[in-house]
Amino acid sequence: MPDTKKFMENLSGTGMCIGVLTSGGDAQGMNAAVRAVVRMGIYVGAKVYFIHEGYQGMVDGGDNIKEASWESVSSMLQVGGTVIGSARCKDFRTHEGRLRAALNLVQRGITNLCVIGGDGSLTGANLFREEWSGLLDELVQSGEISEEASQIHSVLHIVGMVGSIDNDFCGTDMTIGTDSALHRIIEVVDAIMTTAQSHQRTFVLEVMGRHCGYLALVSALACGADWVLIPEMPPNDGWEEQMCHKLSENRADKKRLNIIIVAEGAIDQSNKPITTELIKDLVVRCLGFDTRVTILGHVQRGGTPSAFDRILASRMGVEAVLALLEASPGTPACVVSLCGNQAVRVPLMECVQMTQEVQKAMDEKQFEKAVRLRGRSFENNLNTYKLLSNHQMDSELPHSSFNVAVLNVGAPAAGMNAAVRSAVRVGITEGHTMFAVSDGFEGFVKGQIKEIKWGDVGGWTGQGGSLLGTKRTLPAKHIDKIAEQMSIHNINALLVIGGFEAYLGLMELQAARSKHAEFCVPMVMVPATVSNNIPGSDLSIGADTALNAITDTCDRIKQSASGTKRRVFIIETMGGYCGYLATVGALAAGADAAYIYEEPFDIRDLQSNVEHLTEKMKTSIQRGLVIRNENSSENYTTDFIYQLYSEEGKGVFDCRKNVLGHMQQGGSPSPFDRNFGTKISAKAMQWISKKLKESYREDEGRVFVNTEDSACLLGMRRRALVFQPVIQLKDETDFVHRIPKEQWWLRLRPLMKILAKYKTSYDVSDSGQLEHIVHLKTKDTSAT
After folding, report:
1. For binding ATP, which residues are annotated in this chain's numbering (predicted)?
2. What pTM did the predictor assign?
3. What integer is the mean pLDDT of 657-683?
4. Contact status, residue 679 vs residue 503, Cβ threshold 8 Å
5. 81: which of 128, 299, 392, 503 is 20 to 30 A away, CA to CA?
């Protein structure tokens, strides 16, 4: 079979000049994108220029356009906003302004632009590109540039990255800054919920987003808000009465607080604005509830970028440089974007036109069309919220007579409770009777099984750990007792939420079907583990929260050495034999090296890393960061690496070590884990409902199914959530080390090394290819 890999060594940027600018509103993660563009550009041999203050700096020229060095982007990964400045520029909207900008670029030989901004900034960049040849002709005629210079710089290449907290740009699942803004919102909501609970208050929160309701919708999903108002789906006439009725019902169910989230662009069916004050007055007038308004404002733009945004921005920045390297005169301006878990390139103007169509549909009151145009991810979020918030009375619910049990297995992971809440509420909505099993399979054996109702899972979304209780016990030794409990409680389906033990447990239950008919029922597993080591899924619930814990701690550790002598920190992360946390944490924290089991290393590699770091310490950086996965090597322990670096770095730097331990498993789940857990669990329950209907035998009055595809793992694969029979995943599993044989994130390791100034081979065969937005819309990106 021919080798299809294409390495970056074939793509040289020698003689190439790249300008990077941030424009429009700032967003957390922009600095990570700038850093990646600068370092990747220098790595391939190009000159990279900062264009300060966005398009205004391009028009004004002078010191606003400066060549960047490797060191000039050090220590900016964790900084919010944009250190090269951003401004809205009236001059660039004029022909004269764009003419001055073209002159400033040609004088420095810049014919490649990386533009980080929103739809307005990217539209301006495309117009600039279309006018480029005409602008050069004018400059030649006025004598400001020579004919030769015009020929040399005849083509302007544009690559865009969307930096906007609003996530209002079509063609990408997530824009740079959105996840960080969600972190700020959820931090505030979690804090408000404690005070609201104390006083039995109703809080009305306004979040940003302009004409896009993404932040409001996802934050409502992530905190379990009682009501949400977004511009894409205005409430039906009479919504005021419905909302007050729901708030009143929730209070009657002994819920001590109400949360209402309002997007700043929220409107009613007549396109009239719905404001927070209007809602407050309504609640006070109709219900008499003590009600407060909180407008989050620019808090959402501030703070450090989340781990997700740092990784997204770093991947997009590198992808943008690759796109410029591969561009030809006929290549259209493109946007580097995210589809599922994959980088793609989409024609810039297709994205802009689709984004404008959304607003047009809303203006014409075609709201369902507007939701569809926002993309599958937005639509899925909305449908899931409706499913989970629509609490019907028992008399109104369909009754299926099916009993479904849900349990947590393995180590706790943040987001497990959100997944359980989602499963319980979707199950009840589908008409099933839901049962909760305490303490995993161990609780199953002891009969710790009880019915769980809608209200029992209220407020679970933001809780860390596992409220059901979870144990690592496997079912094989207790299979007879578990079968007995399945029979006693007439369990017709199982939803297992957990890590590698859950995966092994599901296999053991399936293997026991030949002896126990009780296990011939639909069974599905949802991956939840900080280690992210489950075959069949690129991501697991809990991994994002752990990554944020690692990133935040590394930021603090590095800051502790600020202003002191040169220092290197050796950090140990969890993960068992899986190096996901170490590798992706290293990328997010800007580490100099990451040692993992999947990439064997020896004393020569360690020595090389020490020498590399010593050289960097002598010339530029003051702080170094080395991350080691806990089981990366039996002999090269954290203590060994610490002592080696300490000895070899004498006279240049000193060393400190830190074992992060179980703090990676603790804390409140991140917005991503809450949202991911909620949606993946809802999808699992809908699959269970479908399988129950298919496998019910009316003549026997029971559920019976014994096919391979009736015991599945639901995982995220590249762009989609996919159900995979667990028996088919055996060949993909390294059972000794409890990891998948192939892991997608290993492709990020060369990127991490490049950004840390190592020379390495970078496989670009999997880099984003230019795709049309119409094709992207047909892909299932519901997991993002």
Report:
1. 25, 88-89, 118-121
2. 0.93
3. 95
4. no
5. 128
